[in-house]
Amino acid sequence: MFTIAIHGGSGTITRSDITPEQEKTYRQALEQALVTGHAVLANGGPALDAVEQAVRSLEENELFNAGKGSVFSAAGKHEMDASIMCGHTLKAGAVAGISNIRNPVSLARLVMEQSENVLLMGRGAEEFAQLHNIPVEPDDYFYTDFRYHQLKEAQQANKVWLDHSRTNTGKGTVGAVALDQAGNLAAATSTGGLTNKMYGRVGDTPIIGAGTYANNQTCAVSCTGYGEFFIRAVVAYDISCLMSYKGLSLKEACDYVVRDKLKSIGGEGGLIAVDRAGNVELPFNSEGMYRAWRNQPGAGDVAIFG
Ligand code: ASP
Question: Based on the structure, what is the number of domains in the chain?
Fold first, then answer.
């Protein structure tokens, strides 16, 4: 038995916000990332590779707010965050506020595997990337007119925007969770953060336990939504704790955290999760979430709306 689930962000995503052509493009992009991760698992590969490969696929697609498609910060820059965690070893790696790195998730994995640290930020993370010949891209690679106009609109409105939470936008943070044939779980998340975010702002994505968590005893979780709330609610770890300390099922834990706890503090968003038996949950309290999953018997789905 193996399973993979991915997300491409949550927010105000309704049928009226995107054209049928756009919907098709998103579905294809999700399918492509899903197939990439699924193939790793089908070949007997580790969950860690599957989540990294799936997230890389989404990072290289400008449709999503991660890697190439990252939103602009208030400083007119791309400041990306990413993390990855292995449920078998409980090792984790993360990077925050980095620029020009083609695949932030792979840098996060390098931090996990080639350093003594869990989280590297900014210049230090970029220098670490250089040391290990991680591919970098010029600013142009990350530039899209669409994102630039979004920034200008946000600045005019004097707002900081969660990627999907306004009309005519439809892109978001990306993530993947997987259970491999050896019974190991892994999770990874990558984002450009919020449009017009303050220089130096870091969300939940690179915070282990908030935006990402994996533990073979319980589950693997990757979150998307307004990061500040996910940090305060320690969402990903909370789901794992509810399972281990209170014996809740994955579904019970996810429902409580996303629809009850997170909502009660005003947190909007969702998550993807898989448990050690291969059960998948994709709960969200926003109007939509780009999401997809597939398991070994071949069950699965690609969905966008609520
Ligand atoms: N969670 C991300 C952040 O706050 C944003 C997102 O999920 O779209 O940086």
Answer: 1
